[in-house]
Design brief:
By secondary structure, this protein is mainly α. Helices cover 67% and strands 0% of the residues.
Length: 215
């Protein structure tokens, strides 16, 4: 698998990944509009699950490639946005919260944090950008935070993500007879594609402007 060494590599990779996802959604939408009433009911359920699948898949792919693009450049943590140093220690802090640790161990972790500015960011921790197979708005907010993407740009989409994309997908995946109205088709597909574009563009702009570096 190729790696996003340059900004143009990164931009190309997330654009190509988004393009085939959009084509699948658009092709299925076109098939629904051509189908008879009986087939439409089946295909509408299919498009609800496909939209969610591509939403989750694209967010995970684009976020991982973005973090990898920066990791490949091996910047020191003091050269990067402070979120990257937070990301370094988030898993350790989570482990401390689950286990009984001595005062000495906690002090040692604080020493590591204080002494980490000269260390280099060179490895992506995929656990920090896990979609957990349930990419609701809260999980998406966490991924945006890890990537330093302003979540405010997506606040208006919280209900769509949770109540339309995720809930309908879960209902269908669990065998429920969830009905998707043909009148909802354009909004469902268009808003899903728009979400993918907006998230990818936010990462692409940050990479282009090197906004991950200290101002």
């Amino acid at each position: 698998m190729s790696k996003p060494y340059s900004q143009s590599d990164f931009s190309r990779m997330i654009t190509e990944d988004r393009t085939w996802r959009i084509k699948e959604i658009s092709d299925l939408k076109a098939a629904i509009l051509r189908a008879d009433n009986i087939l439409q009911k089946v295909l509408l359920r299919a498009v609800a699950t496909l939209c969610y699948a591509h939403w989750e898949g694209y967010v995970k792919f684009a976020a991982q490639k973005y973090m990898m693009h920066i990791a490949l450049r091996k910047y020191r943590y003091d050269e990067l946005h402070r979120q990257f140093r937070k990301n370094l220690f988030l898993p350790r802090l989570a482990a401390l919260s689950r286990a009984k640790t001595s005062l000495n161990d906690r002090c040692a972790l604080i020493d590591e944090i204080l002494d980490s500015s000269d260390n280099r960011y060179s490895r992506v921790n995929d656990d920090l950008i896990a979609t957990k197979s349930n990419l609701n708005f809260e999980v998406f907010m966490d991924i945006c935070l890890v990537c330093s993407v302003p979540i405010e740009d997506f606040n208006d989409e919280s209900t769509f993500i949770d109540a339309i994309l995720l809930k309908r997908r879960n209902d269908i995946a669990h065998g429920e007879d969830t009905f998707i109205d043909l009148a909802d088709l354009t909004e469902l597909t268009s808003r899903t594609i728009s979400l993918m574009r907006n998230f990818g563009d936010a990462l692409d702009n940050k990479a282009s402007l090197k906004a991950y570096q200290v101002a």
